[in-house]
Automatic annotation (TrEMBL):
Transmembrane segments: none annotated. Residues 468-478 have a biased composition (Polar residues). Keywords: Ubl conjugation pathway. It holds the Pfam family F-box-like. This is F-box domain-containing protein. PROSITE patterns: FBOX. GO terms for cellular component: SCF ubiquitin ligase complex. It comes from Magallana gigas (Pacific oyster). GO terms for biological process: SCF-dependent proteasomal ubiquitin-dependent protein catabolic process.
C-alpha cells in the first residue's frame, strides 16, 4: 500500500502539517488526485499570507485560488508583515482579490493585518459581516483620522480587538503628539461605547492611554473576559477602579502600567474569577497586591510578577511577601514568573515547592540570590514541572536533581496488598529464611526478573509444614516494606531547562541533569564557562532526545569546549534540530565539518566565523559521509570587531528552500 492509496481523510490530515506555500507550489504539482485535494476547504481555514505568496502569485492566479477555497477560509493573517519582518509589502493585490464579486468571504471570522487602505475599509466590512476578531498595527491605529474606528462600529459581532506593537516610530512634535493622543483616545472611547459585545481587548505600545478611555471600556463592555494593556501608562487608578462588581474578566495583563496596590486591591475584589494575572514592570505594585490576589482569586493558574528593569531600581517584591502568598492558597497555580525579583532566595522556593505542587512552568531568571537548595527541592517536589528558566542566576551551584516517584517503587504495591496476596496464594516456594539484598530487590522489582532465594537450612519438602511456608512468605513481604531499603530513583519530567550565564554551573551539575532529566528537549547553558567536554558528553549521552542545545560563549569569559564536544553531539544527539556554538574559540573548522557531515537532518547551526560568507565547501568536507547530499543555507547576521560574524547555517537534504 502506497501513499496514493491512503484515504482522503488521512491525506488531508498529513497535508494540514504542510505550509500553504508548499501546498500550492509543490504538493499541488505532484499528481491530479493531489491537485484536487490541495484545494479542499479543510486546508484553507487559516491563510498566512506572506511576501513570498505575493511575489509568486499573479493577480489572476490568486483570484483563481481564492474562488476555489474562499468558502472555507476563516482566518487571514499577515503576521510577518505585522511583526515588521517584511518591509515594503503592499496588501492591495490581495485585498482587491478578496473583494471580487465572485469570491465568497462571508465565513471570515478573524483578520490580522498591519493596515487597511481607506478605499478598501468599508467594502471589506460589508464583504465580511461575520468578522469577530481584528488585529492591526499601532502606527495605523494611532495616526488614522477616525475612519477606521467609525467603520468598526458597523461590526456588531466583533468579539476581539487588538492593537499590536509596531516597530516603526511615529515622528510627532510635542504639540502634535498631545493633539494626536487626545484624538486617539476619543476615537477608542467612541468605538468601545458602540461595541458592547467585546470580550478580548489587547492594546500594545499605546503609552498615552487615558483613564477616561479605560473607564468607557470597562463600564460599557460587560462581557469582557480578557484585557491586556502593554506599556499603557495611565496616570491614576481611576480607569481600572471603574470595574463593576463581579466582573467576568479571567485574564488580566498590565505591563509597565502605573497601577499601585489600591488599584490592584479593587481589581482582585471585582474579578474573583481571575485565572491569569501579569503585572510585569509595574513599579508601584508591592507584596500587598500579591496578598490580595491570593485571598480574593482562589482559582489563579498563572502569575507573572517579573521585574525587567531590575538593574535600574529596587524590586518591590520581597522574599517574605511572596512566602505569605504561597503559604495561603496556590494549589491551582501552574505557571509562575518571578524573574528579576532580586530579593528572592531559596527559602521562597522551598515554600513554593511545598505549596504549589502542580506547577508546570517556572521562570526564575535574574534572581541573583538563589544558590541551589531551593531549586533542588522545587524540581523534586513539583512532579509536573516541564519548563524551568534559571538564566543569569550567577551563584547557582550544587544542583541535585534526584527525583523519587513512589508510584513506581515496590513499597506502594506492597502496601496495597497486591504483592502480599500473590505470595500468600502461591504454594510452591521453598522454605527457609529469606535473605534479600537491596540490589536483588530493586533489580527484581524493576526488570521483572525472578527473585533469588537463599536457604540457611537444608531443604526438606516432606517435613515442611504449611505454617512454615506462611511464615516465610510473611518474612518476604515484610522485607519489601523495610525502611532501610532505598526506593529506586525515577527521572524528572523536565522538558525545557535554561541555565545560561550561570557561571557556577560545572560538570557535576551537568551529570545530575543528565541522570535525572533524560526527557529534556531544550537545554541552554550559554556562558557556563566552568563546564568542559566531559560535562557535554554526560548531557548528550543521558538526554538523547534533545532538540535544541545552546553551548555558545557569553561576552564575559571564554568557554573551554573543543571539537570533542562536537564529535560527541554528532554521535549521540540524533534528534537535534538546533545547535548554538557562537564564539567557542577552541572549536576548529575541522570539528565543525565533522559535525555537519554526521549530524541529523534538518538542523540549524549558529556559529561564529571570521569569514564574511560561509559556502558549502567551507562547512562540509569533500569526503564521503552520511550527509553527502546535504544542502547549506547561510545567513550572516552582524559582525563584531572581536568575535567575527554570526552565521545561521541551515543544513537540509532538499534542493528547495525549506524556509518557503
Amino acid at each position: 500500500m502506497g501513499i496514493l492509496d491512503l484515504p482522503r481523510e488521512v491525506l488531508l490530515m498529513i497535508f494540514s502539517y504542510v505550509p500553504l506555500y508548499n501546498i500550492l507550489f509543490s504538493v499541488q504539482q505532484t499528481c491530479r488526485a493531489w491537485n484536487d485535494l490541495c484545494f479542499h476547504h479543510y486546508l484553507w481555514r487559516e491563510v498566512h499570507y506572506s511576501k513570498e505568496f505575493d511575489e509568486r502569485l499573479t493577480k489572476k492566479k490568486l483570484l483563481s485560488v481564492l474562488k476555489k477555497v474562499s468558502k472555507g477560509v476563516k482566518h487571514i493573517s499577515f503576521e510577518k508583515a505585522l511583526q515588521s519582518e517584511e518591509n515594503h509589502f503592499s496588501f492591495n493585490k490581495f485585498l482587491r482579490c478578496i473583494l471580487h464579486e465572485n469570491v465568497d468571504m462571508g465565513n471570515i471570522a478573524s483578520l490580522k493585518i498591519p493596515s487597511i487602505p481607506y478605499k478598501y475599509l468599508e467594502p471589506l466590512v460589508k464583504k465580511c459581516p461575520g468578522l469577530s476578531s481584528i488585529e492591526i498595527g499601532y502606527k495605523y491605529a494611532y495616526c488614522n483620522d477616525g475612519i477606521f474606528f467609525d467603520t468598526l462600529k458597523r461590526l456588531p459581532n466583533l468579539k476581539e480587538f487588538r492593537i499590536s506593537k509596531s516597530a516603526e516610530f511615529v515622528p510627532l512634535n510635542v504639540d502634535e503628539d498631545f493633539s494626536q493622543q487626545t484624538m486617539f483616545n476619543e476615537f477608542l472611547a467612541d468605538m468601545f461605547s458602540s461595541l458592547l459585545e467585546l470580550e478580548v481587548v489587547h492594546i500594545d505600545s499605546a503609552n498615552k492611554l487615558y483613564d477616561s478611555t479605560l473607564c468607557v471600556l470597562l463600564s460599557k463592555c460587560k462581557n469582557l473576559r480578557e484585557l491586556a494593556l502593554y506599556e499603557c501608562i495611565c496616570k491614576t487608578n481611576a480607569g481600572l477602579e471603574s470595574l463593576p462588581d463581579k466582573s467576568g474578566i479571567t485574564s488580566l495583563h498590565l505591563i509597565s502600567a502605573g497601577i499601585n496596590d489600591d488599584g490592584m486591591e479593587h481589581i482582585c475584589r471585582s474579578c474573583p474569577d481571575l485565572r491569569e494575572v501579569s503585572f510585569t514592570g509595574c513599579r508601584y505594585v508591592t507584596d500587598i497586591s500579591i496578598v490580595h490576589l491570593c485571598i480574593d482569586c482562589p482559582n489563579l493558574e498563572s502569575l507573572t510578577v517579573s521585574d525587567p528593569d531590575t538593574a535600574y531600581h529596587r524590586s518591590n517584591m520581597r522574599d517574605d511577601g511572596l512566602e505569605t502568598l504561597f503559604q495561603r492558597s496556590c494549589t491551582s497555580l501552574t505557571e509562575l514568573d518571578i524573574s528579576g525579583c532580586k530579593s528572592i532566595t531559596d527559602e521562597t522556593l522551598r515554600v513554593i515547592a511545598v505549596c504549589c505542587t502542580n506547577l508546570e512552568s517556572v521562570n526564575l531568571s535574574k534572581c541573583f540570590r538563589l544558590r541551589g537548595g531551593g531549586v533542588n527541592l522545587l524540581v523534586t517536589s513539583c512532579k509536573r514541572l516541564k519548563t524551568l528558566n534559571l538564566t543569569r542566576c550567577r551563584f547557582l551551584n550544587d544542583l541535585n536533581f534526584e527525583a523519587f516517584d513512589p508510584k513506581e517503587t515496590p513499597f506502594d504495591r506492597c502496601s496495597r496488598g497486591t504483592l502480599r496476596e500473590k505470595l500468600l496464594k502461591s504454594s510452591d516456594k521453598p522454605s527457609g529464611d529469606v535473605i534479600l539484598t537491596t540490589n536483588h530487590l530493586v533489580q527484581g522489582a524493576n526488570v521483572g526478573t525472578s527473585t533469588q532465594y537463599f536457604d540457611n537450612t537444608d531443604y526438606k519438602p516432606n517435613e515442611e509444614s504449611h505454617a512454615g511456608r506462611s511464615t516465610t512468605k510473611e518474612n518476604f513481604s515484610n522485607s519489601l516494606t523495610c525502611s532501610s531499603i532505598s526506593s529506586p530513583r525515577v527521572h524528572s519530567e523536565l522538558r525545557v531547562l535554561k541555565m545560561g550565564i550561570c557561571s557556577k554551573l560545572n560538570d557535576q551539575c551537568l551529570r545530575q541533569i543528565a541522570t535525572y532529566c533524560p526527557e529534556l528537549r531544550e537545554l541552554d547553558i550559554k556562558g557556563c564557562y566552568n563546564t568542559t567536554d566531559d560535562g557535554i558528553s554526560s548531557i548528550v549521552r543521558g538526554c538523547q532526545r534533545l532538540r535544541l542545545l545552546d553551548i555558545s560563549t557569553s561576552y564575559t569569559k571564554q568557554m573551554l569546549l573543543s571539537d570533542r564536544s562536537l564529535v560527541t553531539i554528532a554521535t549521540h544527539c540524533k534528534n537535534l534540530r538546533q545547535l548554538n556554538i557562537q564564539k567557542n574559540g577552541l572549536m576548529s573548522l575541522d570539528g565543525v565539518r565533522y559535525f555537519c557531515d554526521r549530524c541529523p537532518l534538518p538542523i540549524t547551526v549558529i556559529l561564529t566565523s571570521r569569514s564574511h560568507d560561509i559556502q558549502r565547501t567551507d562547512i562540509l568536507s569533500t569526503e564521503k559521509s552520511d550527509n553527502a547530499f546535504k544542502m547549506v543555507k547561510s545567513n550572516c547576521f552582524y559582525d563584531t570587531s572581536s568575535f567575527g560574524n554570526f552565521h545561521e547555517v541551515l543544513l537540509h537534504n532538499s534542493n528547495e528552500d525549506i524556509f518557503q
